[in-house]
Specification:
By secondary structure, the protein is an alpha+beta fold. The protein contains nine helices and eleven strands. The strands form three sheets. Strands 1-2-3-4-6-5 form a six-stranded antiparallel sheet, sandwiched between helices. A three-stranded antiparallel sheet has the order 7-9-10, with helices on one face. A two-stranded antiparallel sheet has the order 8-11. Pfam families: APH (PF01636). It comes from Amycolatopsis regifaucium.
Length: about 270
């Protein structure tokens, strides 16, 4: 997420869903999207009033209404989304907070067409994936490996397989074109080999440039995919997004470099 609008002042205003978010949500969830759009601004407004805060910024998000709110106790983030997987993502965010690599989650509210999340805001909150040292990133990955084993979250391999089979025509990173059928076909047997002994440990699953932020006590992770899988998958994606050498980051994270290379190939073909 990146900050987009100018700060508000005075009492908490009724927030507006950005036009790009409206289009993306209605396209992805045509059944849920319109009903969420009708309710989300009022729900965020009510949360803002409950925390006696005022909206300072609206974030640029792909599939939700996300705002920064200033309260007498500090800054919080309010997020509402119609994503059916949002309750699992909220549970994964709590896992990150428990590991002290994610901001604390104060509240999760589920309704028929939406999930709203209240969490502390990471400040200064600048994107850190490109300016973090390889030692910092390696330490972050090693902390993730200490999470308790859970089967609550689905395997990342299932999500990747769906993208490879269906061409990843939706939910692509900005400015990225879907992989060719040939590239995806070459990646599928690599994924099959990886799945034979894939771990089911907790992973972030989406360590992209906007999800690694600089906080007062180091790096913090936000917006987890809510997945299980090989720790090497997170290593591969983080190496691809940060520009660090795969083998070197694998060494710092005490990961199997051959599996990191294989997951990187699958991740590229799946356009994560």
């Amino acid at each position: 997420m990146t900050m987009s609008s100018t700060p508000h002042s005075g009492h908490c205003p009724l927030p507006q869903v950005p036009a790009a978010v409206t289009e993306a949500i209605c396209d992805r969830w045509p059944g849920r999207g319109p009903r969420w759009l009708a309710a989300a601004p009022s729900e965020i407004f009510a949360l803002c009033q409950r925390y006696d805060g005022r909206i300072r910024q609206t974030f640029s998000a792909r599939y939700g209404l996300v705002v920064s709110v200033e309260t007498s106790h500090g800054h919080i983030v309010l997020k509402s989304t119609p994503d059916p997987d949002a309750p699992l993502q909220a549970a994964a965010a709590r896992q990150l907070a428990a590991l002290r690599v994610g901001p604390p989650v104060h509240e999760v509210i589920e309704s028929e067409f939406a999930t709203s999340i209240v969490m502390e805001q990471v400040l200064p909150g600048v994107r850190a994936i490109r300016n973090a040292s390889i030692d910092e990133l390696g330490e972050l990955l090693n902390v993730l490996k200490t999470a308790p084993v859970t089967l609550e979250f689905p395997p990342i391999s299932a999500w990747l397989r769906n993208r490879l089979v269906n061409g990843a025509a939706t939910d692509l990173p900005p400015g990225v074109l879907a992989a060719s059928a040939e590239e995806r076909a070459q990646a599928l047997p690599v994924l099959d080999d990886l799945v034979r002994d894939e771990s089911r440990t907790f992973i972030h699953g989406d360590i992209s440039s906007g999800n690694v932020l600089r906080g007062p006590f180091g790096l913090r992770l936000i917006d987890p995919r809510a997945a299980t899988g090989d720790p090497e998958y997170d290593v591969a994606v983080l190496a691809l997004k940060s520009g660090h050498q795969l083998a070197e980051l694998a060494r710092r994270a005490a990961a199997n470099s051959a599996r990191v290379e294989a997951w990187a190939m699958v991740a590229v073909a799946a356009r994560v």
